[in-house]
Amino acid sequence: MDTSDIRKGLKMMMDGQPYAVVDFQFVKPGKGQAFTRVKVRNMATGAVLERTFKSGEKLEPADVEERNLQYIYPEGTDYVFMDAATGEQIPVAGEKIGDDSKWLSDGLIVPVTVFNGIAIGISLPPHVTLQIVSSEPGVKGDTASGATKPATVSTGAVVNVPLFVQEGEWIKIDTADGKYLERVNNVGKK
């Protein structure tokens, strides 16, 4: 790969560590050689740093593997995922998942990034469907447009939902910002 391949999400090796491009900017000054200013995140540690690459400089693709694994259960501070094809169980450290753990429900299939045989992170889907386990009933007459109430979903996360949404219903939630998207009526088991 070279600098013309740089884009958001590109995974590359730098100093023996896998990095993912968070942001980049191509700069062509009036004088001198063009370059690309890149902000990258270390996929193993989460550290973010900036680097500058001269135009045409060669880059090494990251030696990471993306595997679609099924979430099965928490174990201490870790979360255990399973490869449905082989039955292999792979733990992912809680600090690698962070706050995203509140969207993990039994059976959810997520891409897990593996580096040197060790899981270093997950990529949540854009939205998840979860069941509301507790919510106060909406107050009759309180119909102001956009009025919401807090609801606890099956994973323990609290989401603000419209007043008409009831306990026991399934809702779709945006994993990026934790906002309610819509009610889901025909949910078999996901």
Automatic annotation (TrEMBL):
Q: Would the keyword Metal-binding turn up in this protein's UniProt record? A: no
Instruction: Give one GO molecular function term.
Output: translation elongation factor activity
Output the Gene3D superfamilies linked to this UniProt entry.
2.30.30.30, Nucleic acid-binding proteins (2.40.50.140)
| Residue intervals of the Translation elongation factor P/YeiP central domain | 66-120
Listed A to Z, the keywords are:
Cytoplasm, Elongation factor, Protein biosynthesis
**CDD domains listed in its UniProt record:** S1_EF-P_repeat_1, S1_EF-P_repeat_2
Q: Name one GO cellular component term.
A: cytosol
**Residue stretches making up the Elongation factor P C-terminal domain:** 128-183
Pathway, per UniProt?
A: Protein biosynthesis; polypeptide chain elongation
Functional description taken from the UniProt entry: Involved in peptide bond synthesis. Stimulates efficient translation and peptide-bond synthesis on native or reconstituted 70S ribosomes in vitro. Probably functions indirectly by altering the affinity of the ribosome for aminoacyl-tRNA, thus increasing their reactivity as acceptors for peptidyl transferase.
Similarity-based family: Belongs to the elongation factor P family.
Q: What is this protein called?
A: Elongation factor P
